[in-house]
Amino acid sequence: MVPVPADPIVARLCRLCQRAVSSLSATGAGLSVVARDNQFSLLAAADPASERLEELQLVLGEGPCIDAAAARRPVLIADLGWDGPTRWPVYAGAGHDAGIRAIFAFPLQVGAAQLGVLDLFRAVPGPLSGPELRRAFDLADEAVTLLLDDQGHDGDERSSGEAMAGSVELFQAQGMVMIQIGGTLAEAMVRIRAHAYAQNRRLIDVARDIIGRDLWFDRD
Amino acid sequence: MSTVSAERLSKIFVEVADTLVDDFDLLDFLQMLTVRTAGLVGASAVGLLLADQRGRLQFMAASDERARILEVFQVQASEGPCFDAFRTGEPVLNADLQAAGQRWPGFARQALSVGFRSVHAFPMRVRREIIGALNVFGSAVGGNFDAADVQIVQALTDVAAIGLLQERAIRRGEVLTEQLQGALNSRIVIEQAKGAIAQAHGLSVDAAFTVLRGYARRTNRKLTEVAQEMLADPDKLAALTER
Predict the structure, then answer these.
(1) Of the N and C termini of chain A, which has fewer Cβ atoms inside 10 Å?
(2) How far apart are CA B159 and CA B150, in angstroms?
């Protein structure tokens, strides 16, 4: 969907996973991305144990991460022992053996553009509290922004969730640019954001120009 | 003005119960509810906003295009009866739009310009939490809801909230968050599809929505599903205008 992220982005995503662990009383966190052929691959993790838990879902083809991507919504499992064994017979057992009691999977997406999934592993069962849930959504937004802005821009005030919180016009402009460039939605988002950065303009103003047919993008 | 027959009301509750099966589509359900509510109380139009995980109201459903535009306007301007009902937890009843220029300067102007004269707003609750609000637009000056109308619309709003909870949620509170996030993302998918259709067919984004909705109805498919398919495979965009 988006170009394979450069190493500095991977390093930042690993740090993001580590922040997720420390700020959400989790034991681990991992992040997988969707490649062009719709296959998932592990991109970042908080530590080697998280890496194994994340990768196992991809190998088995089952787990909260897989379901979150398929349903395009979060999968929040406060107690893996409750319906885990019936939903994911193999993975739930492996997670349990690794000492995991709760898993929370957040799709990294903007509408129809799927970029990946952020997974959070906890040793203690129980739901995320309201503030924890908001924090997790913020981290997921931040990961989306990092994946879309893999162009060496430094994260400034723009990056705080603007990719997700965009207005109706921004989403409409994404669909238009996708057709203009003959590419994917994610590529359209990258082009719109790169243009806004280069021209030092707000995304919403760029989006309005696109909808008004005052600005259009060519195929590469 | 309550002229609602018990028969019509019971029909709606049966339809709601029918919809709330295991894999129901939240957007389709809320859309159906806005259309039925509008028909039931003789309102011109009905719209519905839900709060996201950060407590920001987002557009979810509307019975027609005028209501959709007004709901989106409220979201963008952070002003209007839905915001008041959401903030206070109290309904806004029989508000005269011609006298509301101070209360909602932008919203009142917009609503009057598309022919509405009155507006009501009802808070939507799940347990103690207010999760959104439902707007009822009317063409009668100042509105003419009596106590029975208020009860009926508040009951339908509560039913919409129950739709969000459904049976599984009693076991797992997390399902509400999952449902809501899924529906919010579906709204984005639809906006993206409108843009793609507008570009491919040389239409305005509003005209693109009419085309998308018409196609979904003709083929008897869900709006989100069709939108998703068009964005995954833009070659399918050509099929939209084929009869």
Answers:
(1) C
(2) 14
